[in-house]
Amino acid sequence: MGKRRYYFSNLMSGHLDLFYEELCALISQNTGISLKARHEKNWQERTQLFDSGEVQIASMCGLYYTKRLSMQPPQKLRLLASPVMYASHYRHQPIYYSHILVRSKAIEKTFQDLRGKSIALNEPDSHSGFNALFSGLGEHNEADPFFSGFQLTGSHLNSLRCLVAGKVDSAIIDSTVLESEAAEDILKGSRGVRVLKTLGPSPAPPLVCQEVLPREISQRIETFISSPVVHPELQELLAKEGLSHFTRVDDEYFHDIRDKDLRARNFLSQCHGQLPGIFQQKIYI
């Protein structure tokens, strides 16, 4: 019998698919573990494969991770590591931000100027592209939905496309996505966007494995990707995505996500009577 193959899925922005495919190849070459990335086109299919155990390792939003642990019965997961961005505003920590954007020529100067306007959101399982907004509104004791319309787009890049195309007045997206080459490609030929408000920081999306993955396997993967002395090929791969390194994290680190999720759910519950008709159908442009 040949050695068992394990599978990885990127449950984050699709522009990271190639990065994780190359990361899996590096892990396989340097640990002897057969690990292959699976990139089903449909995000829901990717999550189903992970939830079923057919895929054993995934990169995922911290909100998705905490929700899986709070299911009944809870999904049994283990944290491997979280990425640390290279840029100084990430403070050498596994964090990221949510940026509320407007078009560069927009008349809005402050976040309050967006009251009564529309905003593009990712989808409800996204912390940086959905929950962070409602957590922030709840934290500032807003008593109404604030915005006149919410456009669910299904991804950060789609939210950016919506904003650039003039379909919404604003958008909230992951700071690391905004800094990606994929975002740069969308912005080419446009008049650009600017950050009106930044929310966060929040815990960076972790790499997570199913509890059924043998611990010896997960430990070898964790040791390779989060070693203090970064493998040269890994360092080169990380640098292409603006990453410095991976670092170990524990479940307690994601209590911030849980607190923000509770605040967001309380805000949405408080505004429930005013929300019907405000949320639009998902669009993919």
How would you describe this protein?
This protein is an alpha/beta fold and 285 residues long. The protein folds into two domains: 124 residues, Periplasmic binding protein-like II (D-Maltodextrin-Binding Protein, domain 2, 3-Layer(aba) Sandwich), CATH 3.40.190; 130 residues, D-Maltodextrin-Binding Protein, domain 2. 36% of the residues lie in helices and 24% in strands. A six-stranded mixed beta sheet has the order 2-1-3-10-4-11, with helices on both faces. The chain has a six-stranded mixed beta sheet with strand order 9-5-8-6-7-12, sandwiched between helices. Helix 1 packs antiparallel against helix 9. It is globular, with a radius of gyration of 19 Å. The N and C termini lie far apart (46 Å).
Tags for this entry?
six-stranded mixed β-sheet, alpha/beta, 2 domains, D-Maltodextrin-Binding Protein, domain 2, 285 residues, 10 helices
Topology summary:
Layout: E1 5-10, H1 17-31, E2 34-38, H2 43-52, E3 57-59, H3 62-69, E4 77-85, E5 95-103, E6 118-121, H4 127-139, E7 149-152, H5 156-164, E8 170-174, H6 175-178, H7 181-187, E9 193-203, E10 207-210, H8 215-226, H9 232-240, E11 243-247, H10 255-270, E12 279-280
Parallel strand pairs: 1-2, 1-3, 6-7, 6-8, 7-12
Antiparallel strand pairs: 3-10, 4-10, 4-11, 5-8, 5-9
Helix pairs in contact: 1-9, 4-10, 5-7
